[in-house]
Amino acid sequence: MKTDQWYLPCLIIGSCAVAAIEPQQHRQQQVFMHQQHGIDAPLQGRYLHITDIHMDQHYLTGATIKSDCHREPKKHKHKKKKQGLLAGYWGAPGMDCDSPPRLVYHSIDSIAKEWKDKIDFIIWTGDNARHDGDALVTRTKKEIVGYNVKVADLLRSAFTLDNNRTLPIVPCIGNNDIHPHNELRGMKNNPQLLEFSEMWKDFIPEKQQKAFRKGGYFAVDVVPGLRVLSLNSLYFFGSNDVVNSCSDSTGPGARHVKWMRSQLKKARRDNVKVIIIGHVPPTVKTFKDSCLDDYIKLSTKFKDIITGHMYGHSNMDHFQVISRGFGNMARIGSEDNEQDDEDDMVQSQKDTNRFISTLRKQYKKVKKVRNAQDLVVIHVAPPMLPLFYPTFRINEYQTDNSSNQFGQWLKYTQWFTNLTYWNEQIDPITRKHLEPGFEVEYSTDKTYNMTDLTAESWLDFAQKISSKDGKDLWKTYLENMFVKTNNDWYGQSVPIETNPIYDWWNWFYDNVSNLMFS
């Protein structure tokens, strides 16, 4: 791969131009020192989490959903014949389509305008490229590289401060950010890792570049006293068949575990707190068994310095509780679906009943085992992709560096934009589509009455929402899991007569949920 110049297709619909990007012109991010944080510039105590953007340069407004929003409907002899749902201008929420570039550009720009002066850093947990669901328009390596470079440049530019310096941005590799998807080899000088190393060279500390080029992981001090470990979850991922499990001491998974252990030891010596991020969350379904076991061992051993485990990939807004002693407790809806990876959008809807039922059983079991076992709480943020409604998360943490609670996760606020509404908003004079606005969906303090987000607080919350007295709060939690879309399934450009997900949700809640609480 040439390192002096990158060529990628312009990611603007309707354009076939080629853009040249010169990495050496990127603003160098001072990753180990937050330049703002002097005597006159205290920490903001907030950071942004975005995930699963899934940009699609082939997205076409008015296209059919069954074409992955890539092709217009065929003309019918009978003009009155309904076509079904068509792709909206800003996206097709709730459908099997990825993000139109205009949604990605607008979302990143609007988030940055509102928040870049109010946050300390950004965690960005992967999957920038579209899914490979359209057999007529298959993904290419060049296209995927283009998405990754484009999103990195958008973030780099949008989050540049007035002093011409970019906020610390901490990325990780998603399973759809590589070609073919899911498969990342543990070979020496892996060309895909070298590509990421170049495009993210101002996000990764110079001293961490060797580790990243070798394994796709790195550590970075985002603010003094707070360090992020960016994991390469693909070396733990059960769907990555080209690498062995972590029980192979010579494999990339075992090397990753060794690196993770050394970094956690170093963090404890340095007296810093740690946030662990990755793309694929650690569960029985997603991780290879030995890798999950090693992950849990390290997470429990260093629980005193780890403030959170932040992931994406699984789309639904939720948390899971894992433990070496839980057995099948972490197995969420996996018994009949081992052959596919968890991020498939159709599968997410298909297995929703089982997912929710099993998740609640997991929470309910917490009360019985929390005093006898070390439990790890894993958090999955919902996507910017309009599988539901596009989202982002603002986390808050303790900034009192005189306290041993410095870095502790305090709360988060989940934001979303209702694309069903914004797809229909037209300026009456110019006839142009109005730009979507983001609004608060919920916050952990006001909605869930949580005073902080320590692991113990999440275990208390798991017990509460799985109890008989927590039925109303459980319902609220489910509404938030689907970003306010579980009762309203998206009329877009061409409405349909029935509303299947509305009927499904009423059936589910009236029948399954009542059985849970009986």
Topology:
Blueprint: E1 6-9, E2 18-21, E3 46-50, H1 101-115, E4 121-124, H2 141-158, E5 169-171, H3 191-199, H4 209-215, E6 218-223, E7 226-230, H5 252-270, E8 273-277, H6 289-301, E9 306-311, E10 318-322, H7 345-350, H8 352-369, E11 376-380, E12 391-397, E13 409-416, H9 419-422, E14 439-443, H10 455-465, H11 471-481, H12 500-517
Parallel strand pairs: 3-4, 4-5, 7-8, 8-9, 9-11
Antiparallel strand pairs: 1-2, 3-12, 6-7, 10-11, 12-13, 13-14
Number of strands: 14
Work out the strand percent. 5-15%
Residues in helices, as a percent range: 25-40%
**What's the CATH topology label?**
Purple Acid Phosphatase, chain A, domain 2
Count of the separate structural domains: 1
Question: Any idea what the CATH superfamily is called?
Answer: Metallo-dependent phosphatases
By helix and strand content, what is the structural category?
alpha/beta
So what's the CATH class?
Answer: Alpha Beta
Order of helices and strands: EEEHEHEHHEEHEHEEHHEEEHEHHH
- The unreliable regions are 1-28, 31-40, 330-348, 487-503, 512-518
Keywords: Glycoprotein, Hydrolase
Domain Calcineurin-like phosphoesterase: 46-310
GO molecular function, one term: phosphoric diester hydrolase activity
Organism: Parasitella parasitica
Task: Please tell me about this protein's structure.
There is one protein chain. The model is unreliable at 1-28, 31-40, 330-348, 487-503 and 512-518 (pLDDT under 50). The chain is of the alpha/beta class and 518 residues long. Helix 1 (101-115) runs parallel beside helix 2, helix 3 runs antiparallel to helix 4 (209-215) and helix 8 (352-369) crosses helix 10. It has a single domain (6-517), classed as Purple Acid Phosphatase, chain A, domain 2 (4-Layer Sandwich), CATH 3.60.21.10. It has helices spanning 101-115, 141-158, 191-199, 209-215, 252-270, 289-301, 345-350, 352-369, 419-422, 455-465, 471-481, 500-517, and strands at residues 6-9, 18-21, 46-50, 121-124, 169-171, 218-223, 226-230, 273-277, 306-311, 318-322, 376-380, 391-397, 409-416, 439-443. 29% of the residues lie in helices and 14% in strands. Strand 1 and strand 2 (18-21) form a beta hairpin. It has a six-stranded mixed β-sheet, with no helix packed on it. A six-stranded mixed β-sheet has the order 6-7-8-9-11-10, sandwiched between helices. A two-stranded antiparallel sheet has the order 1-2. The chain contains twelve helices and 14 strands.
